[in-house]
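Researcher: Go.
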Amino acid sequence: MSLIDGMISECGSGTSRLAGELLELQGRWSKTEAMLTAVKDSHSVKVSKLEVAIGELERDLGKTASSLPKEKKTRKAKSSEVRRLQRQIEGDAGLVSRGIREAKDALPLATIEGGIAVVQSFRSETPPTLEAEEARLFGGKGDLEVMDGDFDLILADLKSACFLPTCSQGPEGKDPVLGGDAAPGSDVATGEEGA
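Model: Structure:
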């Protein structure tokens, strides 16, 4: 019997050892379970914080998405305004450069036209016709006929109209213009007789 008692005793000690190990494992399991619960709680807090952050980001993204078309429209309007202003500036620059070119081209032409105008002002606008010259000459002939053909009277009249200082310095009785004796009626014609 002692063999059976030894085996029972051995089994009892093994059972008590296993029971101790089981208690130890249960303690470890409790600790692990507590750690898992703590991790789960921490994870739950982090998840809820992330959900709040995601909600805020989605809200911001919604605002951005709704304002994006407005922003695009504003940018498009600004870029079209910039392009319009650039075209206007380029057009104005083109007009200015064309005006400068035209002014440079017109300057020599204006100078030539001005010179022509000056030349034309010195010349008569139209040359006299043959008929006009004949009429002028016939008019002068009529004036000569009025004077009765008296040569001495005409000469005295011309002398009084064109008095030359050399005439008074010549020898007395000599006409320096004609080279001979003074005309007998010249004193009467000039009005020097009564002087």
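Model: Residues 2-122 form the longest helix (121 residues).
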